Each structure stands twice: as C-alpha cells, then as structure tokens.
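A reminder from the course coordinator: this example appears on the midterm review sheet, so study it carefully.

Given structure:
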C-alpha cells in the first residue's frame, strides 16, 4: 500500500471520539500496539464497552475537551450517530488535525455528510488496499495513510486453525442492513431467511449446527422471535467473544460485516447471504461464496 506522511505527532496530546464498534476496534488495537494514550476519550454506543474492556484507566469525557490543547482528534467513521461527525466539525473550526479511521468499504460519501453539510477529515487512515483505493477515488485530494490492520492481527492470533476436532458449526454473523430493499422488512431478516431457505443447497453436512452471532450494535433480543420460528434449521445464539465463536466453527456466513474477512483469513469457508434483490455485497474479497450465485432462482 502506498502512503503519505502523516501530520499526526504522537508525542503531543490528542483526543479520540468513537461510537460504532468497527472503528473503535481498529483505534483500540492501534493505540495498544503503539503504546499510545489519548488525553481524553469520548466513547458512546458500542464503543463505550469496547474502551472500558481494553483501557481500564481511560480518561473518559462527556464532551470534547478542546480546552485541553489537543493537537489532533482521531475518530471512527460510523453512521449510527453523528458523534464523530460533530467532533470533526468542531475540531476543523479550531484548526485541530482531524483523522478518520476507515474500517469498512461502504457509503464513503454519506459517512461525512450530515444535515446538508459535508465535513471531511484532514487525513484518512486505512488498513487495506481496498479501502485505500476507494478513498483515493472518492476523495482524490485528501491525504491517506496506510497502517497495518492491528485489530485483524490481534484477533487472528487468538483463532484456532481448522482441524479434525473443529466442530461442524456454521457461524452466522448478523449485522443491521439499514434498508428494507423495498420489501417492508429489515434487510438483515430477509438475508437470514434467504440463507436458511437455501441452506440445504450450499454443500455443508445436514447435521451442521447453526449459531447466530449478533452485531455489537444490535439488541440482545432482536432475533428472538425470528429464531423461535426458524423451522427445519434451528438456530441458537452464539455466546462468547468473536475469536471464540470463529475458533469453534468450520463455516461462516453473513451479509457484509468485517468479521467475515477475519474468517476468510483464518481459512474458513465464507458464504455471502445477501439475496438477489439486495444491492451487491460491499466486501471486495473474491473468496466469499455468494449463495445467490450458487443457486438458480
């Protein structure tokens, strides 16, 4: 990956603002790997628990402490809230360096647009070639810094390789789609139903156990009613950490969540569950087996 020189000086105080799980995991892994500690952290939503679990003595703040004379602010780029957008906007007005960490491959333009106003960071930090290519396409005049995917490195180090003792389990990775694709039902439920309907045709043993892992942003009881009526293929919730769930499965399925890429890198066979009427999968990884391409509709 190519890279520009960053203007970030890790010897000066900096702040961190994050909400969604993906960006938070990347930022946490990076800071721990490089032994960096922010002057303050504003973490809401799924980010709050992730930070608390990783940094027990973090300097949590209820608001952006610009009066602490920070030189830069590092943010995620989630769109479940406007927290990170507001931080970049305020920092920009004060001449503070803004850094956006990209952990995904979707909706790049929309992530920096709120209430009719686009606010771009001074620098984009990316962890793979795919994201770098997209950033350079959408924002050709912005600085891009390529950093190692420390989060993936950390998680992959925890995974057990597939061997003869790996149980016949398929792990389904849920995630909110934030669209009903014109059918009046959240897309994540459509995709899960599509997957279960076509499960007999994808070439896994009939006695395979199906475990559903919720996305960190989803309510624990979100799928309860659906799972209660899942028909011929009973599905149970996965318990434990992501690395534990991936270690205890042979196959993985999902729509387009980042965790699918970890499964690929660990040698698991990964199925894409987006139905034919949904937009194409945003994950650019060629080894994902898209069920809609296996089966004639």
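Designed residues:
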């Amino acid at each position: 990956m190519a890279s520009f020189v960053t203007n970030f000086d890790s010897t000066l105080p900096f702040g961190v603002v994050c909400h969604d799980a993906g960006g938070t995991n990347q930022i946490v892994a990076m800071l721990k790997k490089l032994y960096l500690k922010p002057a303050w952290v504003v973490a809401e939503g799924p980010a709050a628990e992730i930070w608390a679990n990783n940094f027990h003595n973090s300097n949590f703040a209820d608001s952006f402490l610009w009066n602490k004379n920070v030189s830069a602010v590092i943010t995620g780029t989630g769109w479940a809230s406007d927290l990170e957008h507001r931080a970049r906007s305020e920092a920009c007005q004060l001449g503070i360096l803004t850094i956006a960490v990209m952990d995904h491959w979707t909706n790049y333009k929309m992530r920096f647009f709120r209430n009719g106003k686009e606010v771009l960071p001074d620098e984009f930090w990316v962890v793979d070639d795919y994201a770098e290519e997209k950033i350079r396409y959408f924002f050709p005049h912005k600085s891009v810094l390529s950093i190692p995917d420390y989060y993936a490195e950390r998680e992959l180090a925890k995974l057990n390789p597939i061997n003869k003792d790996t149980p016949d389990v398929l792990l389904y990775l849920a995630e909110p789609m934030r669209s009903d694709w014109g059918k009046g039902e959240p897309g994540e439920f459509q995709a899960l139903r599509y997957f279960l309907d076509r499960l007999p045709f994808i070439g896994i043993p009939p006695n395979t156990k199906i475990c559903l892992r919720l996305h960190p942003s989803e309510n624990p009881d979100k799928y309860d009613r659906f799972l209660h009526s899942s028909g011929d293929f009973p599905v149970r919730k996965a318990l434990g950490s992501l690395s534990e769930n991936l270690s205890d499965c042979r196959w993985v399925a999902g729509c387009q969540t980042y965790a699918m890429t970890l499964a690929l890198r660990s040698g698991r066979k990964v199925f894409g569950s987006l139905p034919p009427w949904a937009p194409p999968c945003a994950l650019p990884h060629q080894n994902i087996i898209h069920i809609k391409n296996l089966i004639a509709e």
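The radius of gyration is 20 Å. The CA atoms of residues 42 and 63 lie 7 Å apart.
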